[in-house]
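Incident log, entry 3
Record: Lipid-A-disaccharide synthase (362 residues)
Problem: checksum mismatch between cached and fresh output.
Input:
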Amino acid sequence: MRIWFDVLTPKQVMFFKDAVKSLQEKGHEVLCTSRDYREAVELARIKGLDLKLVGRHGGPERYGKLAASAERMRALADVISGFAPDAAVTFSSPEGARVAFGLGVRHIGFNDSPHAEAVAKLTVPLMSRLLCPWVIPYSSWTGFGISRKDISRYHALDPAAWLKDDNDDSSSSAHMVEPDKKEGNKTVVLIRLEESKASYIADKKLASTALVDAVVDELAQRADIVMLCRYSDQIEEAKARYGNSARIIESVVDGVSLIKSTDLFIGAGGTMSAEAALLGVPTISIAPVRYHVEDYLVRSGLVARTRNPGALAKLASRMLAGEKFRKAQKKRAERALASMENPTKKMLAAILLKQNNDHHKL
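Fresh output:
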């Protein structure tokens, strides 16, 4: 078979890399496309995933997103018609969905974020099959125009795809940033800033500045605060605002390795918060929107949530001081991860389904 993956974000690099490797080892021809997007391109290089870059990220504004998407769709049409895949696999790529639909290619799509309505509207109705975590109700998707019979759920959160068998040796010390614990034997607090250019955040002008200010003011004197940004302009803004109190990581790093060396994780996004929670690191979500995966993590006691700056500062201090809490959190996370399946297996089964059906007909 020929399989096309459209890989747009760091999460998607992690989510798809094992499936790509498995398919290649089985003799299938795989093409992975992406766009000019700093974090995804650099992480793919670190993880050894070959990407063909087509197009660019459109930025935070509506016109920029529209123009970049239209340009990328046109360029992808040429690339993909030439490759002639038997299946397309995307994590709700708008351009991937439209090109697959236009060329009549079976599209296996993934999504764990129905709250990102713009992306869901542009992709979910065009999928041949949608796969998602079991914590998301079918009704969250059918409103976008897909039939319930075309939805499959797996008993896992997406990070289980790369955390279940965490034996990847590509995360060498050359690719990670070890927070400096030597100075005063400080604990390490890792802060992941929000996806500020995503439409569901940019359109509503949502920001977490006051929350991050509160954490930095509270903990800077007794913790090594490490800040992980998403964009070059976000890095520069963080350096200007927090450069004297926090360490701003300027290179793209292996998030799992970084999280493992952290005592407390504070996330304004989704994927790294789920990673940290499933690795047993005390985790606080300051995400600007509510979503099903986070609700599950909060219900399970794996994540605490607040959007109140004062409450956040107190909660962070309490978590750092609680040795018994941290040990209990580790055990809770191990149980949760052990109970989950590996989404990669469902992914491979969905991709190869048509081939298997064809074999049965012979």
